[in-house]
Amino acid sequence: MGCARATDHSTTRSLWWVAKAQPTLRLAFVLLAFVPLVLASPATAQRSELDQLLTALASAPSEEVAARMEARIGELWQQSGGPAVALLLQRGARDLSSGAEVEAVADFDAAVALEPDLAEAYARRSVARFQNGDVAGALHDAEAALKREPRHFGVWRSLSQFQEARGDLAGALAAWRKLLEVDPKTSEAQERLRELARKVEGEAL
User: Fold this and answer.
1) DSSP H helical segments within the chain, as ranges?
2) Cα 37 to Cα 67: distance, rounded to the nearest angstrom
3) Mean pLDDT, to the nearest integer, of 27-34?
4) Which residues of 14-46 are buried (b: 16+ CB within 10 A; e: fewer)?
5) What is the pLDDT of residue 22?
6) Which of 93, 141, 172, 195 is deepest in the core (most CB within 10 A)?
7) Pick from 187, 188, 164: which is nearest to 175 by CA?
8) Are 60 and 73 in contact (CB under 8 A)?
9) Distance spanning both ends of the chain, measured CA to CA
10) What is the pTM of this model?
11) At what angle do helices 153-165 and 135-148 cross, to 10 degrees?
12) Burial profile 169-198: b = 16 or more Cβ within 10 angstroms, e = fewer
């Protein structure tokens, strides 16, 4: 009997502890549910945001909304190679805007060397090379960027300009149409489309 009473008492204490601990256990389970979100790497979160924005860009309701999306996507592309690459891209952009194309190409060369799979590095170097008179290099970099990110609206825009400058109006029109597939509300979307179409039709006459 004494043994039975001791067992009953021990069981009662255990049940009391479980009942008392239930709120704490529930909280623990709730917190554990968020562990995957907390442990998600910044790069993973960044890729997810990029994919969402690029998908949304294809159905942006206006040019203003598209411009805001383009700006945010551009920021994410610049940051996606890490801090060192981001600094190189920023420095290259400053060099390019000040007319120092050779220095800009060197900056973008360094970015490509650090992150050879980063589409944004090739995209920016393509512009710098074109402005430096290296058309073949610009076209090569544009293709390399699009291979890594086919939805890079900035590259499709640049490629259209490159092709027009070298006299390939059909190529310029084709590139612009590809741009409109991913970014239909981009600046001057329909105006440039009509302009290039007229030029191509005039060339065919």
Assistant:
1) 2-33, 35-39, 42-57, 63-79, 83-97, 101-114, 119-131, 135-148, 153-165, 169-182, 189-204
2) 30
3) 41
4) eeeeeeeeeeeeeeeeeeeeeeeeeeeeeeeee
5) 54
6) 141
7) 164
8) no
9) 111
10) 0.78
11) 160
12) bebbbbbbebbbebbebbeebeebbeebee
Which residue bears the tokens 């990029």? 50
Alpha carbon 112 to chain centroid distance? 16
Burial tier of 114 (Cβ tally within 10 Å: 0-12, 13-18, 19+) = middle
At position 10, the amino acid (one-letter code) is S
> Is 60 exceeded by the pLDDT of residue 180?
yes
Average pLDDT, the chain: 85
Tokens of 91: 């420095």
Residue the block writes with tokens 């194309």? 101
